[in-house]
Design brief:
This protein is 43% helix and 27% strand. Helix 2 runs antiparallel to helix 3, helix 3 runs antiparallel to helix 5 and helix 4 packs parallel to helix 5. The two termini are 42 Å apart.
């Protein structure tokens, strides 16, 4: 380095590792500067070493986050394509197709809005339900019952999509009982595994038979796409004048600690 400094070459800062006095290896950045006499003659060099452990960790997390975002974006592309494909096969006009696609993509957008407000660090299930129901005053009041639980990003997006389809079914087929809708969830255990159970119930009206046929994009979302994305299963039941959709999934696929960093 002294030889290069004497030749007037610039030594760029470089990174290496050094052993700390406590024995651990520390990543550092070293800057070399010339020391000259009053007459301008090079008499030495000084080096400054900076601990860059935090910077290294920040860069690592940024790379992980970038890969995770790419993965989630690709998943959303797949969902949007499925929405378009399934809606197109069951729409009777361009106008109906455009309306339904817009509604479903906006439902995804609402879930993204909630996630962005908390930096993808967990959304309360009760907040997700309220957010999806906010624009549908005719369905209010809705009974919402369950312990506080924070949802991971994947659960937010998929449950948000499920709630949208359930809401649109209720709107489309004419639920009439004020306060007739109930959303409840509980945490249980099956064979030593923590399990999440969600139940949506409402008065069984004209569309009960349609849902039983398992046709349409809504039935696909509620019967296959959402349960599969959460490694669970779902089923419909009809009893006591109610139509019930029940989702069961491993709690590990649903929950994230509120206020914690998003799982990468």
């Amino acid at each position: 380095m002294l030889r290069r400094l004497k030749l007037g070459e610039r030594i760029e800062p470089f990174q290496t590792t050094r052993r700390h006095r406590d024995g651990r290896m520390v990543p550092i950045s070293i800057t070399i500067s010339p020391i000259k006499s009053r007459g301008g003659r090079l008499v030495g060099a000084s080096s400054i070493a900076r601990d860059i452990s935090e910077r290294r960790e920040s860069n690592r997390r940024l790379r992980l986050l970038t890969r995770e975002i790419n993965h989630r974006v690709k998943n959303q592309y797949a969902i949007v394509l499925a929405i378009i494909r399934q809606t197109a096969t069951r729409s009777r006009s361009i106008e109906e197709f455009e309306k339904r696609v817009r509604e479903r993509i906006m439902a995804l957008s609402h879930s993204h809005d909630l996630l962005s407000q908390v930096d993808w660090a967990g959304v309360r299930l009760a907040d997700l339900v309220a957010h999806q129901l906010k624009s549908f005053e005719v369905l209010q009041p809705v009974r919402v019952i369950g312990p506080e639980i924070g949802l991971g990003a994947n659960a937010v997006l998929n449950l948000g999509m499920a709630f949208h389809e359930l809401i649109m079914n209720a709107m489309r087929f004419g639920i009439t009982d004020v306060g007739g809708i109930s959303v409840a969830w509980a945490l249980t255990s099956e064979e030593g595994v923590d399990v999440f159970e969600l139940v949506w119930s409402e008065p069984a009206v004209a569309y009960a038979d349609l849902l039983a046929q398992e046709e349409g994009f809504g039935a696909l979302v509620l019967g296959k796409l959402v349960p599969s994305a959460l490694s669970g299963y779902a089923k419909w039941s009809f009893s006591d004048g109610l139509i019930v959709w029940k989702l069961t999934a491993p709690l590990a696929r649903i929950q994230i600690g509120l206020g914690s960093s998003a799982s990468l």
